[in-house]
Specification:
Elements lengths: L19 E5 L27 H13 L4 E5 L9 H14 L4 E6 L4 H10 L4 E5 L5 H8 L4 H13 L3 E8 L8 H10 L3 E6 L10 H5 L3 H9 L4 E3 L8 E6 L5 E5 L12 E4 L4 E3 L7 E3 L1 H6 L4 H11 L23 H4 L2
Parallel strand pairs: 1-2, 1-10, 2-3, 3-4, 4-5, 5-6, 6-9
Antiparallel strand pairs: 7-8, 8-9, 10-11, 11-12
The structure holds S-adenosylmethionine (SAM) and iron/sulfur cluster (SF4).
Iron/sulfur cluster binds next to loops.
Length: 339
């Protein structure tokens, strides 16, 4: 664990240096993935959402406080109007060296339009979410998505020189017959692939969660029938464990928040588009940074609010999906906190 001696840095009560900020720039999306959203989602009133200028000021305050990696997510970050003005503004911290990495998690639908601009302002890598290579299943899973459009986005991103990691949620009875194909396809295109275990976040309707849930230990056992997996020491401080796949030469990750405890090395906090800071993905406690941000043009009040929030970062979370707990463990949707 890094323990910098810079007094402005954010160190939580457990000695963890907070160096990674994930920002949900909008709760809206052009897809309605079945594990993420209900079909008839109610989104935040626009008036509650921070302007892009406010988001940039808030993110910049975190960069000043020692954040080295910043990820824009959502909802779908690239559907926010004028989002490039924010990315460009934050890209300046890359130019100055204050920020080491600026990246996005996206569903890829708008990449054909934005890939070149993203690369031009200092973005080097993207996470693109894609759970299936079957266009019909893709439409069913995302309700509104078009696989071809995402594929064109991926082409554009790779042409622009962006490194891509594919994220796929493992869903029982949906894409569990496709793991081998997804691995060969991603690695064949020079992209890493990470499987994510479905998490109980937000009401999505009915008993869907239990039907979808697939422990990644099962996914790994299935994959190990086709490939040799060598555990890699590659770490991001997050919940992913990585393996090198001998047959493809590519990297394969597993994110298993439900079956593994990854909290002790947690280096991240999450900011919503209303300026609410969540210190843990799996807990309800949050701090409002919008009022302190708006209270003054100087950042003193904001800085104090950030310090107080970090002092409340919990040691970890306790997610659970089983037959007695079908209700979401955390009421907010992933699209609010940004995954
Ligand atoms: N719209 C963008 C996208 O889909 O990449 C960014 C936001 S999305 C909420 C971020 C990631 O969270 C996606 O990879 C998505 O698959 C994942 N996700 C959403 N709901 C989830 C859930 N209930 N459990 C696990 N992963 C989830
Ligand atoms: Fe939208 Fe991403 Fe949620 Fe799918 S996972 S509905 S693309 S925010």
């Amino acid at each position: 664990m890094t323990r910098p001696h810079y007094p402005n840095y954010m160190i939580d009560p457990f000695g963890r240096h907070i160096s990674y900020l994930r920002v949900s720039v909008t709760d809206r999306c052009d897809f309605r993935c079945v594990y993420c959203m209900a079909e008839d989602m109610t989104f935040l009133p626009k008036a509650e959402v921070l302007s892009l200028e406010e988001l940039e000021r808030l993110c910049s305050a975190f960069v000043r406080r020692g954040v080295k990696k910043l990820r824009l997510t959502g909802g779908e970050p690239l559907v926010r109007k004028n989002v490039m003005s924010l990315v460009r503004g934050l890209g300046k911290h890359i130019d100055s060296g204050a920020l080491e990495e600026l990246t996005l998690t996206t569903n890829g639908s708008q990449l054909a339009k934005y890939a070149k601009d993203l690369a031009a302002v200092g973005v080097k890598r993207l996470n693109v979410s894609m759970d299936t290579l079957d266009p019909v299943k893709f439409r069913e899973l995302t309700r509104w998505g078009d696989l071809d459009q995402v594929m064109r986005g991926l082409d554009a991103a790779q042409d622009a020189g962006l490194k891509i990691k594919i994220n796929a949620v493992a869903l029982r009875g949906v894409n569990d017959g496709e793991f081998e194909k997804l691995i060969r396809w991603s690695h064949g295109r020079g992209m890493d692939l990470t499987f994510i275990e479905v998490m109980p976040m937000g009401e999505i309707g009915g008993e869907a969660r239990l039907d979808q849930y697939m422990p990644l230990s099962m996914a790994r056992a299935e994959i190990a029938k086709h490939f040799t997996l060598d555990e890699s020491d590659f770490r991001t401080g997050g919940p992913a464990r990585y393996f090198n796949v001998a047959e493809t030469g590519g990297r394969l990750g597993f994110i298993t928040p439900l079956t593994h405890n990854f909290c002790e090395s947690c280096n991240r906090v999450r900011l919503t588009c209303t300026g609410t800071l969540y210190m843990c993905l799996g807990q309800e406690d949050a701090a409002d940074l919008r009022a302190p941000l708006r209270a003054s043009e100087s950042d003193d009040i904001l800085d104090r609010a950030i310090t107080e929030a970090i002092a409340r970062k919990p040691k970890g979370h306790d997610f659970m999906i089983d037959r007695r707990h079908t209700a979401p463990a955390v009421r907010r949707h992933m699209s609010v906190t940004g995954g």
